Batch of 2 targets.
Target 1
Amino acid sequence: TGMQSFLVVSVVIALAVATSLGLERQRALSTHRAKDALINTLSHELRTPLTSIVGSVELLTGDMDMAADERSDLQSRVSRNAERLLSMADNMLTLAAMDQREWTPDRRLTDLRECVLAAREAVAVPAERVSDLRVHFDVPDEPVPVVADCRAIERVVFNLLSNAIKYTPGPGSVHVRLTTSEFAARISVADDGMGIAREDQRHLFERFYRTSTAKQHVVPGTGLGLSIVRSIVAAHGGEIRVDSVVGVGSTFSVDLPLHPVTVSR
Ligand code: ADP
């Protein structure tokens, strides 16, 4: 059934991630502390969604007379957790490839609007939050020509947007905007969520860094998303910055050089 294949896929992903990290990143993680941090993160971040998937599937298959709404709750829990594992696996595999220097951006002349809008399809607001969390996309009417790896830029927006959603626990809104100035294109992702303390802001882009606020609120995460964002932006000759106030919200802005030739219409 769909449920069982979800389970199988999740387990395969978990194993692939564990293997890839075990083999490929061991060299880079030379200190015991880094290894401990990795093992802690992994065991928690893999176990939590997997435990939830296994539990939900057991309930679903064990009780054939379950009410339809209860059944659909459990199904959406399974898919949410499988998505979380998938996104984590993608981040970890990207990072492993970057470490191996196997990854360089595949840059082509593209309309940046397409890369930004692709993330809209990829990030889903969890069903139980649809009523109180609005996500707005705002892109120019004209093409925005950049020389970029569109899939990598999509991942940048994906990671920033997933964070904006995750770290806006109550009702709120998230704005993804694409704007241009004379030489640069700017992608900004703004939320009115929990915000980030000033002392945390300069560490955000480090691998495995998570703020204590994030941990206190038990928001799931690995501390890898922003380190990947930073690497991708740097590989494009771009810049990233964060403006944030605790309790008010955060805005992450990515500047990418514009291609000088206007894309012909
Ligand atoms: P993760 O979300 O998996 O923990 P990231 O590297 O994406 O890892 O983010 C690092 C940390 O930065 C997060 O743990 C969180 O504390 C903080 N953070 C990132 N984005 C936001 C945001 N939009 N609002 C508040 N805190 C954020």
Target 2
Amino acid sequence: GDDAVAPGSLRGRRVLVTAGGTREPLDPVRYLGNRSSGKQGIAVARAARDAGADVHLIVAHVETELPVGVEISHVSSAHELEAATLAAARRSDVVVMAAAVADYRPETVGEHKMKKSEDGTDPVLRLVRNPDILRGVVTQRDEQKLDQLVVGFAAETGDAEHSVLEFGRAKLRRKGCDLLVLNEVGTDKVFGRDDTEVVVLSAHSDEESGARGSKDEVARFIVRRIASEAGVGAD
Ligand code: CTP
Ligand code: CA
């Protein structure tokens, strides 16, 4: 139908997709996490596979079935995701950064399981910034002069002064990626649900395009946008 991906449109292309949410350890049994299910990223990996791409999927704690016919790596923290992503990106034609990366991690990780204090004082958690993996991919691409299409994701809410699209345009510029897949989130609007709505912003055009439907339908739309942006012909 209308939303199909041409079967050979990414034939021979190496597509790296990250999906899921990182966990930042506090001690051997505790972590800071997020509510990403990984469904959208995994749907993109599946759609890219169906378009003929050679797909490598890096997953962090996804809550959904993994696709067959793609190479899969498992990571947990943002640091592990960074190392795996930068290494795999060196041999990728397309990088799709769909993972929800924790912006911060605990400054120190307990070697042993933390105990409650005996004097009644409550602990204070100090956080430090995680690396920006998407920016790292873009920097590596530019430094190594790779011919690579880089796709970011952003879940935004507007505020009193700025629309979701304004935030999206600013983020696209800040990240330096080619495409930004934007969706508007309320707490239960996107996370874990199977229907979704996205707008794709391109660094190379003022026009935006959008799709709504199941995560598989939206994934096929994203893969079509990737195929046309990568100049390999969507049809
Ligand atoms: N991202 C990343 N590394 C990070 C944070 C985010 O690679 N440390 C990637 C995400 O995978 C996503 C894109 O950057 O593709 C946008 O994520 P988002 O959280 O919206 O961006 P931030 O720069 O963290 O901005 P914000 O302050 O709005 O969270
Ligand atoms: Ca963030």
